[in-house]
């Protein structure tokens, strides 16, 4: 099938053969992952959409694709309006659209291995209002028509040593066993890939840019566990590392194993487990305890070893990014540089500065109008050459075995306009607002989000994404449960209390459609703060990312004395941490970029 129109037509024919009147296509896998392996890229295959969040619904005569504010422009560039209508989340939802558009009495298919149980309940209720039915399929109809669908990865697992993890897998499972005992439960299902990697101190290469392996696990109240993954993925080193407390099974045996837990009380995370998991447990006679995955919070609160490793990775990464920014400043005005050349050059610098295992996500290398797409993903068709007179936004990160990095910088190609400088300075003021925030224990990310937006709101502008996401330790670059985002936004999770040891991004931005984008992103660590006379236990942020913030885009007159001091202190620390790693012209450039600013 040479076109997306052909693929949609083939799916509709398959639905007719399966006696279905529609089908729902999420962008996820059997583990509710944000980033998925190539074998699970069903939404991209069907529609052409390359974003990291979205879904689609197909009916006999209509089809709709659903994205949030981050992808308003991108989805229109990548998905044909001839076959698809564009739907904005959270203003609408797949369930609501189906209720409005599905025929009376329709049978709408869904894959129970790709949706949460809560979604199934909501969609069932919405369709019932039309006399329609939600039907679980045994075989995904897209898989039936996707002739050259890739096979799941066969990459072997690797050991994440205790020297890097800071805690043994046996200790982590013991902690989970204590939690299960307190809950009165017999076992907990782990379906999220990063939870499994963290719990067993293993990593993998089954998902691009995220070092996880396709697996399921069940941890028991005695501290033992059953791990389900392809046998060929387990080498002798991993087998010895896991020890006798972990029983190994083929991944294909997971569903039947769940059905064997008759009479057990089993904890299942409703947010991180697909509907097929509780369904299999109930079919086998187990009882379900709806609780958050017991790895989620301990994984988010980094231990001292993980924090030290992250800082070491950030120092190497900062040197690579600094050299890259100097290269952009030198080479872009000459011509011959485009977005893809720049992205490749940045990756090369990372390989020169440390044992980088992978990128932590596809680099957002966005010139001019492409920078106005917050989650732009460059292609050969969208690739733009650098010209003078606008901005270049680069959002990138590396996967190092001691830490995961994520950084965004925005630089001018040629002379910036007054508007660009104004907007950049407002974004910087918002960034400093988060970096310097002090808040009592128990504060949620949603309560801090407006700290970053106020300088933009004062000019009547805003940005349509969260201000910060959690980051893993040689794991997912987007890690929950902590976020800095408005409650009720399309990026949910801003309601988790922040705790010392959590790592988040700090990334306010501004985007002018069709012209340019601005974002300044550092990673920050939640730490305890001592305030004389304080009546509450207080927290704040330590900045972890050290790369110069472009001085040519800063209007010093717009900064308060405290903001200017923060900026100059930050650049002094950049010079101290990154300077010793650079030589010659690279070091001279860094020194110029870090020169203290004054009024």
UniProtKB/TrEMBL annotation:
<dbReference type="InterPro" id="IPR032416">
    <property type="entry name" value="Peptidase_M24_C"/>
</dbReference>
<keyword id="KW-0378">Hydrolase</keyword>
<feature type="domain" description="Peptidase M24 C-terminal">
    <location>
        <begin position="537"/>
        <end position="597"/>
    </location>
</feature>
<dbReference type="InterPro" id="IPR036005">
    <property type="entry name" value="Creatinase/aminopeptidase-like"/>
</dbReference>
<protein>
    <submittedName>
        <fullName>Aminopeptidase P family protein</fullName>
    </submittedName>
</protein>
<keyword id="KW-0031">Aminopeptidase</keyword>
<dbReference type="InterPro" id="IPR033740">
    <property type="entry name" value="Pept_M24B"/>
</dbReference>
<dbReference type="GO" id="GO:0046872">
    <property type="term" value="F:metal ion binding"/>
</dbReference>
<dbReference type="InterPro" id="IPR000994">
    <property type="entry name" value="Pept_M24"/>
</dbReference>
<dbReference type="InterPro" id="IPR050422">
    <property type="entry name" value="X-Pro_aminopeptidase_P"/>
</dbReference>
<keyword id="KW-0479">Metal-binding</keyword>
<comment type="similarity">
    <text>Belongs to the peptidase M24B family.</text>
</comment>
<dbReference type="GO" id="GO:0070006">
    <property type="term" value="F:metalloaminopeptidase activity"/>
</dbReference>
<keyword id="KW-0645">Protease</keyword>
<dbReference type="Pfam" id="PF16189">
    <property type="entry name" value="Creatinase_N_2"/>
</dbReference>
<dbReference type="GO" id="GO:0005737">
    <property type="term" value="C:cytoplasm"/>
</dbReference>
<dbReference type="Pfam" id="PF00557">
    <property type="entry name" value="Peptidase_M24"/>
</dbReference>
<feature type="domain" description="Peptidase M24">
    <location>
        <begin position="310"/>
        <end position="528"/>
    </location>
</feature>
<dbReference type="InterPro" id="IPR000587">
    <property type="entry name" value="Creatinase_N"/>
</dbReference>
<feature type="domain" description="Creatinase N-terminal">
    <location>
        <begin position="7"/>
        <end position="138"/>
    </location>
</feature>
<dbReference type="Pfam" id="PF01321">
    <property type="entry name" value="Creatinase_N"/>
</dbReference>
<dbReference type="Pfam" id="PF16188">
    <property type="entry name" value="Peptidase_M24_C"/>
</dbReference>
<dbReference type="InterPro" id="IPR029149">
    <property type="entry name" value="Creatin/AminoP/Spt16_N"/>
</dbReference>
């Amino acid at each position: 099938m040479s076109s997306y129109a052909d693929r949609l037509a083939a799916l509709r024919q398959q639905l007719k053969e399966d006696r279905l009147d529609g089908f729902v296509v999420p962008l996820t896998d059997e583990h509710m992952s944000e980033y998925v392996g190539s074998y699970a890229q069903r939404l991209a295959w069907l529609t052409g959409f390359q974003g990291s969040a979205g879904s689609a619904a197909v009916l006999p005569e209509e089809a709709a694709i659903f994205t949030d504010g981050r992808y308003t422009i991108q989805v229109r560039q990548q998905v044909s309006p001839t076959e698809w209508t564009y739907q904005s989340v959270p203003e609408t939802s797949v369930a609501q659209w189906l209720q409005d558009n599905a025929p009376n009495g329709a049978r709408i298919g869904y894959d129970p291995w790709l949706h949460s149980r809560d979604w199934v309940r909501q969609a069932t209720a919405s369709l019932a209002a039309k006399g329609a039915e939600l039907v679980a399929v045994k075989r995904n109809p897209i898989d039936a028509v996707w002739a050259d669908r890739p096979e799941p990865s066969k990459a072997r697992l690797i050991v994440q040593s205790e020297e890097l993890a800071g805690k043994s897998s046996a200790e982590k499972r013991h902690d989970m066993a204590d939690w299960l005992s307190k809950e009165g439960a017999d076992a907990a299902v782990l379906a999220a890939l990063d939870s499994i990697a963290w719990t067993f101190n293993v990593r993998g290469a089954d998902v691009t840019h995220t070092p996880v392996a396709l697996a399921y696990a069940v941890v028991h109240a005695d501290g033992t566990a059953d791990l389900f993954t392809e046998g060929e993925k387990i080498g002798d080193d991993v087998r010895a590392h896991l020890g006798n407390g972990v029983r190994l099974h083929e991944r294909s045996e997971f569903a039947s194993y769940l059905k064997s837990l008759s009479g057990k009380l089993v904890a299942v995370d409703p947010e991180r487990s697909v509907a097929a998991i509780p369904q299999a447990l109930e079919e086998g006679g187990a009882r379900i305890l709806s609780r958050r995955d017991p790895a989620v919070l301990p994984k988010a609160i980094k231990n001292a070893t993980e924090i030290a490793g992250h800082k070491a990775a950030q120092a190497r990464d900062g040197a690579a990014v600094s050299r890259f920014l100097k290269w952009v400043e030198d080479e872009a005005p000459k011509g011959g540089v485009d977005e893809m050349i720049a992205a490749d050059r940045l990756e090369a610098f990372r390989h020169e500065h440390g044992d980088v295992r992978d990128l932590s996500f596809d680099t957002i290398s966005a010139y001019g109008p492409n920078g106005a797409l917050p989650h732009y993903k460059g292609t050969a068709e969208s690739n733009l050459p650098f010209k003078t007179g606008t901005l270049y936004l680069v959002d990138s990160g590396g996967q190092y075995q001691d830490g995961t990095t994520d950084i965004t910088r925005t630089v001018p190609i040629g002379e910036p306009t007054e508007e660009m400088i104004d907007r950049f300075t407002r974004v910087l003021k918002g960034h400093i607002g988060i970096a310097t925030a002090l808040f009592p224990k128990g504060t949620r990310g949603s309560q801090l989000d407006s700290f970053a937006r106020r300088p933009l709101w004062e000019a009547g502008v805003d940005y349509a994404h969260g201000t910060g996401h959690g980051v893993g330790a040689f794991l997912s670059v987007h890690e929950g449960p902590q976020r800095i985002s408005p409650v009720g936004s399309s990026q949910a999770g801003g309601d988790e209390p922040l705790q010392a040891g959590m790592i988040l991004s700090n990334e306010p931005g501004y985007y002018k459609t069709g012209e340019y984008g601005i974002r300044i992103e550092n990673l920050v660590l939640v730490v305890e703060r001592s305030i004389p006379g304080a009546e509450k236990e207080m927290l704040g942020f330590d900045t972890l990312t050290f790369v110069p913030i472009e001085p040519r885009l800063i209007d010093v007159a717009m900064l308060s004395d405290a903001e200017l001091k923060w900026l100059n202190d930050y650049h002094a620390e950049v010079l101290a941490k990154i300077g010793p790693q650079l030589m010659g012209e690279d070091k001279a450039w860094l020194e110029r970029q870090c020169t203290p600013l004054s009024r």
